[in-house]
Amino acid sequence: MIKILIIDDDTTLSQIYISVLKRNGYNVTYTQNSTEAYAKIEKNDFSIVLLDYNLTPSKELGVDLIKPLKKMMPNCKIAILTNHNEKGLEKRALNNGADIFQIKINMASADLLLALIDKLLKLPSTR
User: For the segment 98-115, what is each residue's pLDDT rounded down to a tens digit?
Assistant: First the structure.
């Protein structure tokens, strides 16, 4: 079974993602910050991480977690998700090792979320 880790401070949106992904046969784990995420990674090997760009309550930037996550799980695919579209965000995320940069509003339907997961799964094992 494909294991997906969601790291996002938006619990409402994350619960929607979790529901859609579980209904479609994915094993989903949810955390709101890097501390929780690292603890989950110690016990699991995830195929995909859906990572919020800006983890507001903890003042962390998801983009700064990409390199440590890739070091811990080299074959994991990481999608940075954000509601922000400022110039340079995508470049920074991809330069840090994200596989995909995705604006959240563009994933408003279950089909679009599943298409993103499918796209990540089809990427080569290492970048």
Answer: 999 999 876 778 999 999
- The tally of domains found in the chain comes to 1
CATH number of the domain encompassing residue 31: 3.40.50.2300
Distances (CA, A) of 43 to 3, 14, 33, 36, 67: 12, 21, 16, 11, 19
Contact predicate 80/51, CB 8 Å = yes
**Is 127 domain-assigned?**
no
- What token pair was written down for 116? 């993103």
Alpha-carbon gap, residue 27 to 41, rounded angstroms: 14
Edge-to-edge strand ranges of the sheet holding 3-7? 27-31, 3-7, 48-52, 77-82, 100-103
pTM over 0.90: yes
- For 41, the domain range is 3-122
Please report whether residue 117 resides in a domain.
yes
